[in-house]
Amino acid sequence: MSESTATIAGVAVSTDHFIAGKRVASKGRFPVYSPVDGLLLAKVSAGGKAEMDAAVAAARKAFPAWAALGPKGRLPILRRFAEGILAHKEKLAAVETMDNGSLLAGNLHRIVPRAAHNIQFFAEWALTLEGHAIDSPEVVNHVRYDPAGVAALITPWNAPMMLTTWKIGPCLAAGNTAVVKPPEWAPLTCSLLADIAQAAGLPDGVLNIVQGIGEVAGDALVNHPDIDRISFTGSTDTARIIGQAAARSITPMSAELGGKSALIVCDDADLDAAAQTVAGQYMNAGQVCLAGTRVMVERKIAESFLEKVKGAVSHMKVGDPREPGTRVGPLITKEHFERVSGFVERAKAAGAEMMWGGNGHNFGELYYQPTMVGNVARHSEIDQKEVFGPVLNWYTFAGDDEVIAMANDSPYGLGGSLYSRSEDRAMRIAGAIKTGTLWVNCFFVRDLAAPFGGAKNSGIGREGGVWSFDFYTDIKNVSVRKDSFAQH
Ligand code: NAD
């Protein structure tokens, strides 16, 4: 088989770009290794400026006809795209697991259906984008949601299929065309999505994918003079670089970034449910932006609650993400493993206590023990920085004011969870925390109609529901003087 196709878990995956409906190879390639077993999965075409120029030109050319179809014309195509994702559920799930190490069962039962829903939901919601009129004394303001143009969509490796569809769903439904830059550590399911979109009848050039290294391909994309939107999900540091490109060209940018969210357990909480949620933070080996990595427990119940959490964590099997019983899979790469263990080692040196874990797991080179760090010094590195691994911090508090101050004492503001049986108390604390999403007595429930995004260093703007369309359209007011048209 040529370098242009890799066979992954029995599935043939193109390793080349997808530009104007055709596969395009680059001279240079970069290796992609599986976190599951460390073996080489594929050598993927490494795009640069030339490939980005071709992709943006293809997207620009396809834009007028795609926009002119309107939401009703786009709906059947996008619906078939969503159906195609579901029809290829097993293949997508298996490739995603080999590509980024996420749990196969989770991919099959949650992520692939969600990816299909991302496409279908926004295609249907776009039907409501008919605009509306605001009556003024002299004029009628006709508010229109016009497609913005060509969107640059950039995604991270921890959830590539979920996040790519979360972006292309509203982007294409609103009438835009797209150039996607998948993550270099896990680019392969994105390639399958291109085939499925094409088979669904998506016109050539509406969706283009250029693989490559962030600093090269991503940089060429965000600095391209002919893009109209940048939607970025990834780290805060990269957002600072991309933001400079967006500022130079005054291109609207949406940024969904890192987090260090609080998980607050009050003394009146359902402690069994809260303990399960704490253990659940180790999912995807903690490589989850929304993870509640700062566990804050009311001092009165801290000891008994700790026992419950220990019980829940003790049942979590670390191992091969393809096996049904596994709860914690590998970290994505050796480089990332070293980053995670570096945080833990420096925390140990600074006097933090390893309540459990704190080392690599003997299952394999990239596997890390679920870890709980106690005795965390306020404003230390482990207290403030996003680790992005199975590493949680344990804190105790007395009273609402203290926990609100602790939760807000972070450069991030992405998520957060709060467990309490008192509605008044829960809503008071929730209202005082500066964050994009705060779950009360639950975790990770995400309705696509609801807004999603981060406060502080966790992001700019909101996507989801109508907020996605605010971002992916040019909202225009056609203000018409009353009685100014000839009457027939
Ligand atoms: P990253 O910032 O290193 O990379 C993200 C993407 O940006 C990749 O595709 C990369 O190739 C690209 N990129 C890198 N440099 C670039 C540049 N100069 N110009 C253009 N593109 C560039 O992030 P990562 O390590 O892939 O992902 C982990 C981070 O993503 C974590 O901080 C995590 O919290 C965050 N994340 C946030 C959300 C959210 O919804 N808020 C979701 C998932 C992950």
Describe the structure using short key phrases.
single chain; 488 residues; alpha/beta; Aldehyde Dehydrogenase, Chain A, domain 1; Aldehyde Dehydrogenase, Chain A, domain 2; 2 domains; seven-stranded mixed β-sheet; six-stranded mixed β-sheet; 14 helices; 40% helix; globular; binds nicotinamide-adenine-dinucleotide
User: Which ligands are bound?
Assistant: nicotinamide-adenine-dinucleotide
User: What share of residues are in beta strands?
Assistant: 15-25%
Computed structural class: alpha/beta
What's the number of domains? 2
Q: For the report, how would you describe the main beta sheet?
A: 7 strands, mixed
Can you walk me through this structure?
The structure is a single chain. This protein is α/β, with parallel strands linked by helices and 488 residues long. It has two domains: 5-257 and 458-477, Aldehyde Dehydrogenase, Chain A, domain 1 (3-Layer(aba) Sandwich), CATH 3.40.605; 262-440, Aldehyde Dehydrogenase, Chain A, domain 2 (3-Layer(aba) Sandwich). The protein is built from 14 helices and 26 strands. The chain has helices spanning 49-87, 89-100, 104-125, 160-173, 188-199, 214-222, 236-249, 271-280, 299-314, 334-349, 381-384, 400-408, 423-432, 465-472; strands spanning 5-8, 11-14, 17-19, 22-24, 29-33, 40-45, 132-135, 139-147, 150-154, 177-181, 207-209, 229-233, 253-256, 262-265, 294-298, 317-318, 326-328, 353-356, 371-374, 391-397, 412-413, 417-419, 439-440, 455-456, 459-460, 473-481. The chain has a seven-stranded mixed sheet, with helices on both faces. Strands 11-10-9-12-13-25 form a six-stranded mixed sheet, with helices on both faces. Strands 7-8-26 form a three-stranded antiparallel sheet. Helix 2 packs across helix 3 (104-125) and helix 3 packs parallel to helix 4. The longest helix is centred in the first third of the chain and has 39 residues, at 49-87. It is globular. The N and C termini lie far apart (69 Å). 53% of the residues are buried. Residues 154-159, 181, 183-184, 214-215, 218-219, 222, 233-235, 238, 241-242, 256-259, 289, 386, 388, 414, 454, 459 line the site of nicotinamide-adenine-dinucleotide.
